[in-house]
Design a protein that fits this description.
Layout (H helix, E strand, L loop, with lengths): L2 H20 L4 H10 L4 H22 L1 H4 L5 H19 L4 H20 L1 H11 L3 H21 L4 H11 L5 H26 L4 H24 L2 H24 L1
Helix pairs in contact: 1-2, 1-3, 1-11, 2-3, 3-10, 3-11, 5-8, 5-10, 6-9, 6-12, 8-9, 8-10, 9-10
Organism: Vogesella fluminis
Subcellular location: Cell membrane
Membrane topology: Multi-pass membrane protein
Length: about 250
């Protein structure tokens, strides 16, 4: 690996770590960077997951104040673990091309949900039968997002923020903290699976590890200082960019 390539991968990973801390979507930076560096797509996907996981951990540690007292913490963690395991397993049995076709539609749906979260929350408040059903719906939604996250992960953070906004879970900053922790759980399961399968390019992964850790810490500090309205705009803008990029990749 040349110095120029190493610096390029570090820069992409730093930006991805910061994005993951603010709203998610870092895979859109790390995966293409690794493919451009010459890695096969499957190896690039696995290496991207490994490189981003410490960034999630670093961001989650920076958010530990916001994680305190969250009532859904345990249940959401269990759902994330189960879903992440299922998604990682699917990598070994389902054609990646099939899921590639679904990715832009899933991100488009998640972005629209987040942008319209206030209206959706009011609607749910009028039509939800009881809090118990709402809690089960939240856990089911988290399970589905976790399956997706274990399989690929691009846009996973946006999907989680959209889900939490739909259920009016907490303030945006605290929802972002929960999203970051659950990303640790989901990606951790996938990382173990990919390492065991032997499909990780370790030289590239180690360079990007350093970048995502540094970017994750910087991004967590930025997310805490941003006004809620600006953080929401960042999420919607990033979701729109992800949607266009994936549609172009699949159908362009």
């Amino acid at each position: 690996m040349t110095l120029t390539l190493a610096l390029a991968l570090f820069a992409a990973a730093f930006a991805a770590g910061a994005l993951n801390a603010v709203a998610g979507g870092g895979t859109l930076l790390t995966f293409p960077a690794l493919v451009a560096a010459g890695l096969p797509p499957i190896v690039a996907n696995a290496t991207s997951s490994v490189s981003q996981w410490p960034g999630y951990v670093a961001s989650s540690l920076a958010f530990r104040r916001e994680l305190r007292g969250q009532r859904q913490f345990a249940g959401m963690s269990v759902a994330s673990l189960a879903g992440g395991l299922a998604g990682a397993w699917l990598v070994t049995v389902v054609s990646p091309r099939l899921f590639d076709v679904l990715i832009p539609w899933l991100i488009l749906l998640a972005t629209a949900m987040f942008a319209c979260s206030a209206t959706l929350t009011r609607w749910m408040g009028r039509h939800a039968a009881n809090a118990h059903r709402s809690r089960n719906g939240l856990l089911a939604g988290q399970l589905l997002v976790s399956v997706y996250g274990g399989f690929f992960g691009g846009g996973m953070g946006i999907m989680m923020l959209a889900l939490y906004s739909l259920f009016a879970l907490d303030t945006l900053t605290r929802m972002n903290a929960l999203k970051t922790w659950l990303s640790v759980v989901i990606s951790g399961v996938a990382v173990v699976t990919f390492i065991v399968a032997g499909i990780v390019d370790w030289p590239a992964a180690l360079v990007m590890l350093a970048g995502t850790i540094a970017g994750g810490v910087a991004g967590a500090r930025l997310a805490r200082r941003l006004p809620a309205i600006w953080l929401k705009r960042v999420v919607v803008a990033l979701g729109s960019a992800l949607t266009l990029a994936f549609f172009w990749k699949v159908y362009g």
